[in-house]
User: Fold this.
Amino acid sequence: MQSAESILTSKNKFHINLGLDRTLDALEKLGNPQKYLNFIHIAGTNGKGSVCAVLNEILCTHFIKSNIKIGLYTSPHLFSYCERIKINGENISQADLNKYIKIASDSQSELTEFEILTVAAFLYFKEKNVKYVILETGLGGRYDSTNVIEKPLCSVITTIDFDHTARLGNSIAEIAYQKAGIIKENSPVVVGKDNLGIDIIKSCASKLKSSVFVADNLEKDGFDNVTINGKKYYFALLGDYQAKNLALVLEVLKHLPFNVNQQTLELALKNVKWRFRLEYDKEKKLLLDGAHNPSGIKTLREFLNKYFSNEKKTFIFGCLNNKDYEEMLKELLCPDDDLYFYEFDYPNALKYNQLPLNIKNRIQKTNNPFEILKKCQNLKIICGSLYMLGKLFNPR
Assistant:
């Protein structure tokens, strides 16, 4: 059987072509498996993955002693396509991935990589009797292939900021309109009170007679604690912004057809993991962060300024060439810190010679980040691309 990877990365599949018709056609031929599933649908610029991870940990913990299965569909992957499709926290097997990708690909010849994965995930979840699916959009929302679902239990829109502007628009209003496309008629919508697109989101929801629930802000109590309803919890995801993501999750829980108790919440927040999101190794003085747009890099810088203000820092940066790398590098460049640029092996990875001269003159190039990690005694931060981190730290 042809491998999933060879199908997904073939030239006629490995591209973006927004729209729902191809996915709907494929799902119709396969019996519309998405209609048998209960979804929590998540869109936004930053924070989608973290919200998915926390929700998944809470739901898996809640149902651990029952036969109820939790599906999780996210992107991108770090090491293997298998990571994108999980049941009860376990990756789909390579054999099952090959099987369902082949079925999805054969169902509609014009499906793109992400559309094939989406169709395969829905079919896999249905055939494995999954009850609840945490569903992350790939790009935007309105014309993203995940948006073929009819009525989620809840729609969640995380922070709105500038990213993928060529496809989603050059203003916050345009981007918010695309993200708000996941809202369905008479279905609850959860958004944070500081969301820059909240007015557009409320307007879109109003037209569909859907109620918008605004999550109250939470504050981190130092490095790894958060207070909820007067009780302090250890929260394994670092960064003050994760408190805002957690606030969204807590609001979502109010609109699900079951109640999560305090013990479940406490255990889930302690155990939740989301690789390469402010992942800190104290012993190695190494911080890995997948921030890949100006907003994410700014948040990273704020975290460093708050918790590592007295540390000299060495950055290793690489990104894709369709990102706003000039703004990201401006945020990282600081006279007191060192910055290295790394050309990683990936389609559309930014090359050193693409950098403007005024930035080139202020940074150094490295062909081997591990040499820097070995020699450097500073706090070391690798950031700019999840794809780059996946390449560097692939366990195989």
